[in-house]
Amino acid sequence: MVSKFSSPKLLITLVVMAVFFSPYFGSIISAEPLEINHYEVDIIQTVSHDDEAFTQGLLIHNGVLYESTGRYNESTLREVNLTTGEVVNSIALNNNEFGEGLALYNGSLVQLTWKSEIAHIYDIETFTETGNFSYQGEGWGLCSNSANFVMSDGSSNLTIRSHDNFSVVDTIAVSYNGSPLDNLNELECIGDYVFANVWHWEWIFIINLSSGEVVGTIDAASIYPVPLTGGVLNGIAYDSDSETFWLTGKRWPIIHQVTWVPVMAEDNSTSDLPEEVIDGLGNQDDMLESSLMILISLLFAFAAFVLWGNGFGSLTRSRGVDNPPAATKYRGDRE
Ligand SMILES: [Ca+2]
Asked: 303 or 88, which is more confident?
C-alpha cells in the first residue's frame, strides 16, 4: 500500500491535509444523527380503561380525561377519572355515526365523525351540544393548537382548519424518511408539533407542523396489553400540568401515563437505531455544510499541490490513489 504514495511530497501533503481537516469530517459524521430523535416509552403508572371503548380521540384538560369512542351504534363522548379509570360522564352519538378525533377549543369539545362529515361541538362542562361544523371527506384524528385545528383523514396529509368555522386554512403533507406517511390517525397538538398515531403502527410520530417532516419517533411496542386483548395503539393525550402523556389503544383494558426516553446511546452511537431511522437522520443543512467543507478541502489540496511544485501529475503517475484520502475517507464512512 505504501507504494501508492511514491512521491514523499505528495504523502506529506496528504497527511497534513488529513490532520488539518479531520475535525471537520468528524463533526460531519457525528452531527448527522441529531435530526430525527428516537424514543422509547417509560411508564409512570397504569390505570384501568374501559375495554369496550373503541378509542378514537383522547385529550386531557385540568386533569380530566376526555375520550371519543367509535363504531356504529356504540360511539360515545365520555369523561374519565384518571385516578380510577371510571367513566364519569358519557353521551351517545347517533347510531349511524362513528365517533373519531376529539379536540378542545375555547371551552368546547369538538368531536369528529368518520364518514358523516359532521363535527359535533359540546360544552365541556355539561356535554350539551352547542353546534356543529361540517367538512368534506373522512374524519380520523383532531387536535387544536393556539392558532387552528389540525385534522387527519387517514391519508398522509394534515388539514389545518379554522377555529372559527372549520374552513381549510392549509394542507400539510407529512413525510417520514422522505416518503409520505399514510394512515395518520389520532393526534395531539403540542406547540408547533403534532404527535400522531399511525393506523396499525406501534410507533408514535412527532411531526414538525411547519415542514410536515417527522422529527422524532416513539416506539410504544412495550406498552401493549399482555396478552393483547384489544386492538391497535390509538390515543395520545398530553397533560400540560404534569408534562406527561397518557396513551391507550382501541378496546385496551389499560391506559398508561408515560414519558419518553431517548434511545440514543451515551456515546451518540446510532447502532441501536432501526435502519429506517438511521436512514432518516440526514439533515439537509448539515449535508450542505458537509459538501462545502469537502469542496473547500479539495480546493485547498489542489492549491497545496500546485504550490508544492508537483501538481496532480504525481497522482496520475503514482496510480492507485484516485482521490485525496480525506474525500476517500468521507465516502467510506458514509457507506
Ligand atoms: Ca389526542
From this structure: 88
User: Which phi and psi angles does 318 have, rounded to 5°?
Assistant: -75, -25
Quote the ligand 1 centre to 235 CA distance (angstroms). 6
Q: What is the mean pLDDT of the chain?
A: 80
| CATH number (domain holding residue 253) | 2.130.10.10
Of 128-142, 184-198, 258-272, the range with the lowest mean pLDDT is: 258-272
Q: For residue 278, report the distance from its CA to the centre of ligand 1, in Å.
A: 28
C-alpha 273 – ligand 1 centre gap (Å)? 27
Question: Does one domain contain both 91 and 185?
Answer: yes
pTM of the complete model:
0.71
Measured distance CA(39)–CA(41) in Å, rounded: 7
Distance from Cα 178 to the centre of ligand 1, integer Å: 25
Residue 254 pLDDT greater than 80, yes or no = yes
pLDDT at position 21 over 70: no
Instruction: Please give the backbone phi and psi of residue 270, each rounded to the nearest 5 degrees, phi first.
Output: -105, 15
- Of the three residues 232, 249, 275, the one that is the final residue of a domain is 275
83 C-alpha to center of ligand 1: Å? 19
In angstroms, what is the span from residue 241 Cα to ligand 1's centroid? 16
Domain, as residue range, for 223: 37-275
Give me ligand 1 centre to Cα 92, in Å.
19
Phi, psi dihedral angles at 127 (to 5 degrees): 60, 20
CA distance 300 to 324: 11
